Amino acid sequence: MIFGADVASMLLGGVAAGMVLFIVSVGLSVTMGLMGFVNLAHGGFAMLGGYAIVLAMKHWGLGFVPALVFGFLAIAAVSAVLERLLYTRLYEAGELDQVLFTIGLVFIMTASVTLLVGPENQPLTLPSILRGQIDLGITRYRTYSVVLIAIGIVIAVGLWLAFERTRMGAQIRAAVDNRRMAESLGINIGRLFTVTFAFGSGMAALGGGLGAEFLGLDPQYALKYLVFFLIVVAVGGLGRVTGVFYAALLIGVLDFVLKKYVPQGGTLFIYGLTVLLLLWRPQGLFGGKAAA
Amino acid sequence: MTSPSAGLAGHPAARAMASRHRLRLWEPIPWILAIAVFFVFPKYLGFATELLITILFAISLDLVLGYAGIVTLGHAAFFGAGAYAVGMLAKHGLWNEPITGLIIAAVVAAAVGLGSGLVLLRTRGLTLLMLTLCTMALLEEAANLGQAYTGGFDGLDSLPIRPLFGVFEFNPLYPTTQYLYVLAVLFVCFVFVRTLVYSPFGQSLRGIRENTLRMHAVGAPVRARLVTCYTVSAAVAGVAGGIWAQANAYVNLGTLGLDRAATVLIILVLGGAGRLYGAFVGAVAYMALSHFLSKVYPTAWQLGLGLLLVVIALFARNGILGLVEDLWRRRAVTTDR
User: How far, in Å, CA of B88 to CA of B81, rounded?
Assistant: First the structure.
């Protein structure tokens, strides 16, 4: 019984971390799949979102949920503007230019945050109902983690429905599979992409806020976790909501378990596994088509 | 059309091809400047040594990125491999002669390059980018974990490097030996890379960069060429890393980090990739700016660097040298009229 409770609490922690990974990475997966754009600034949007949420709570006294909504909207708006003004010029450019441009954006974000807010970690103050523990029958666990899992599942199901059951979702899937064909069928790819990009960045912002409690929130956030977000996308496959969901859970749980049992070599193991996996299936574990 | 080569020998394109490897008048200038620095700025030799090593590292990246068109985010893996090869051998008292140490560094880095290149270069695009990044992260984690051998997070310091030729000591306070040694190694490596990129092999790399499909179609062994290029570039990067470890007498995790890989990428692109001297221009511009600005205003420096990258990516895709070439061409056109 003790063992069972132990496994349950470890799984819960890993799944909660995986949900945050999923919420942050899903936008990256879809935008990369749609436009083939290597957006290394995605972690930066998550960071900006986290800051918007934490600062709105701290200075404007917003509640946690209104602050999350505000963060989502603010970052979605900012990213839509950036996409229309700058990203759109680089869709036809090579990966190198995209990589440079987005690394440049990350530097600008990091520096601006350092200048405007300061280099120190910004703690997220959770509302008191989320702070305690909750009795789940087999084990007691932190309420916030359980809530995170619930939010993650709701978002995943919502996204899956939106992806599989709506016209917009069908358009996105069509464009991911064959952009030219979709374009010639009259789908407005440019608008579709702006909307998806803004939405994905908004989700990243949400993830940045939700995850700030255990990922921390400082100006180095954007680069520190970038490799993790990219791994989730690469493992999950481009443009696949379900793939990213499973990959994020897998990596979240794996990371959590490894950190507990092999505190030293856990990250090494994940990198090694990713390399092997990508060599075996370059399109990712759940991806349908080869990543070009 | 009996003999096309004879008939086209006078064609401007043919003449350009035949003379592309010849020395230009301005080519000795960087070397003269480098020697002048030795006499004019003895106080800045430590910085200048760092600069020369960065140039060497950027040249190695130019080979894969600028010529073969392989976009990698993990080039520091080879720099670090070379640096750790030198550092670990010296620290554990196995080998500390500098010149042979560099050869060992090159061999170790080349082995890493060959091993990873053989598997990585099967992929393209985002997957390749991810794999180079992960390989580097893997090495970094391994160096972090193998504390007994690599010194872990703290790295290995005060490496006992033997004097050059048994005579010239590496003095960290007056790095005159380091400077001249690095300059000589840079020159040798540069001549090697210059010969390589103007050889038929180098030409075929450019072909692969411009149109991989067509190179396949004309029967060029694309994979083998790319792997060879990747290995050679890794060896040069390993020399840069090894000499960095020797000149500073220490090695740490930073040699393997994303920071170093991103910086060298930025330097090369700033100067102009696919141009032999882009590494020189980029390294001088970047290092001078960062040396004087980053200490005073570290945050403003990062902000400026970010803006610079965005501007380069959007407007000046060929870097500083590309801008100069454009100006030159425009001037040539107007004077022709």
Answer: 10
Considering its fold, how many domains does chain B have in total? 1
Beta-strand (E) ranges in chain B?
Answer: none
Alpha-carbon distance A40 to A25, whole Å? Answer: 11
Residue A291 has a pLDDT of 40
Residues A193 and A30 sit within 8 Å (Cβ to Cβ): no
Distance in angstroms (rounded) separating the CA atoms of residues A119 and A154:
34
Residues of A in contact with B282 (CB under 8 A): none
CA torsion angle A266 A267 A269 A275 (round to 10): 170
* A93–B300 CB contact, under 8 Å: no
Structure tokens at A9: 């609490």
CB pairs under 8 A between A and B: 127
The owner of tokens 């980029």 is B282
Nearest CB to A100; choose among B130, B299, B312: B312
Contacts for A14 with CB less than 8 Å, ≥ 6 apart: A249, A252, A253, A254, A255, A256, A257
Answer yes or no: are the C-beta atoms of A184 and A197 closer than 8 Å: no
Q: What are phi and psi of A134, to 5 degrees?
A: -130, 145
A84 CB near a chain B CB, below 8 Å?
no
CB atoms B141 and A223 under 8 Å: no
Report the pLDDT value the prediction gives residue A292, as an integer from 0 to 100.
37
Per-residue confidence band for B55, with pLDDT thresholds at 50, 70 and 90? very high
Containing structural domain, residue B233: 27-336
Residues in contact with B322: Cβ distance below 8 Å, sequence separation at least 6, in sequence order: B272, B275, B316
Q: What is the pLDDT of residues A124-137, one digit of tens each?
A: 777 777 777 777 76
Residue of B nearest to A85 (CA): B314
Amino acid at B58: A
Q: Is the ipTM of this complex over 0.90?
A: no
Residue B165 included in any domain: yes
User: Would strands A133-135 and A140-142 be described as parallel, antiparallel, or unpaired?
Assistant: antiparallel
Does any CB of chain B come closer than 8 Å to the CB of residue A262?
A: no
Whose tokens are 């003095």? That residue is: B171
Judge whether B288 lies within some domain: yes
